[in-house]
Recover the amino acids of this structure.
C-alpha cells in the first residue's frame, strides 16, 4: 500500500478541538447508554448476530483502527458484498436497496443511531466529532498521494460529506473534494457549524434513506 506525504494540519494540534471532542463524546456516550437496551433488543429480535459491528478503517496519517457501530446488516454482510451491485462512482460502495440491510438496520441508518458507538472512538482519540469520512481498507489500496491528503486530519463522525448529501453522495472524487475543502476551511467555530448542520440533517432525514 502506497501512502502519500502528510503535512501537520492545525486541527491535529488544537487543544480546543480535542476538548470539544472529549465533551461531545461523553455526551454521545450518555445518549448511547440510554438508547443501548432498546436498540440492542431490536437488533437481536430482528436478525441473528452480534449487537455491534466493527470494521478496520484508516485514520489520521493512514493509521488503522477499528470503528464501532450498531450492526445494521445481516451477519454475513462482508462476505456477500461482492454480490451486491455498486451504484457509486470511484472507490465508494453504495447501493440504495442493499439486500444485506436488516429492517431494524435501515431504521438505525435513517436516524444515524447506528453511529452512536463511534463516540467511543472519539473519546479514545481515534476519531473526531468532525472530520473526513473514514475510509475502508479496500478503498485506500487504490489511493494516489492526492487522495491520501484527506487523512491529514482525523476521520469524523460527521463532516462536509455528512451535511452535503450523506447516502445521496455517490461520487468518490466529490467526497474527497469535500474532505479537502474541510481542511482548508477548518476552524473550531467551523466544526461547531457542521455539528449544528448535522443535527438538522439527521432530524430532517436529508439524504439518509
Amino acid at each position: 500500500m502506497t501512502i502519500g506525504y502528510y503535512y501537520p494540519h492545525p486541527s491535529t494540534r488544537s487543544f480546543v478541538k480535542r476538548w470539544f471532542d472529549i465533551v461531545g463524546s461523553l455526551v454521545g456516550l450518555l445518549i448511547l447508554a440510554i438508547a443501548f437496551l432498546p436498540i440492542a433488543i431490536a437488533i437481536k429480535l430482528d436478525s441473528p448476530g452480534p449487537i455491534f459491528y466493527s470494521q478496520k478503517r484508516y485514520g489520521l496519517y493512514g493509521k488503522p483502527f477499528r470503528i464501532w457501530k450498531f450492526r445494521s446488516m445481516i451477519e454475513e454482510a462482508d462476505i456477500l458484498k461482492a454480490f451486491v451491485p455498486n451504484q457509486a462512482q470511484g472507490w465508494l460502495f453504495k447501493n440504495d436497496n442493499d439486500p444485506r440491510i436488516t429492517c431494524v438496520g435501515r431504521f438505525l441508518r435513517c436516524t444515524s443511531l447506528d453511529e452512536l458507538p463511534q463516540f467511543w472512538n472519539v473519546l479514545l482519540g481515534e476519531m473526531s466529532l468532525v472530520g473526513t469520512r473514514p475510509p475502508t481498507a479496500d478503498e485506500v489500496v487504490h489511493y494516489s498521494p492526492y487522495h491520501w491528503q484527506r487523512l491529514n486530519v482525523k476521520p469524523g463522525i460527521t463532516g462536509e460529506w455528512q451535511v452535503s448529501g450523506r447516502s445521496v453522495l455517490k461520487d468518490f472524487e466529490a467526497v474527497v473534494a469535500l474532505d479537502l475543502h474541510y481542511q482548508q476551511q477548518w476552524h473550531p467555530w467551523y466544526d461547531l457549524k457542521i455539528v449544528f448542520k448535522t443535527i438538522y440533517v439527521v432530524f430532517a432525514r436529508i439524504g439518509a434513506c
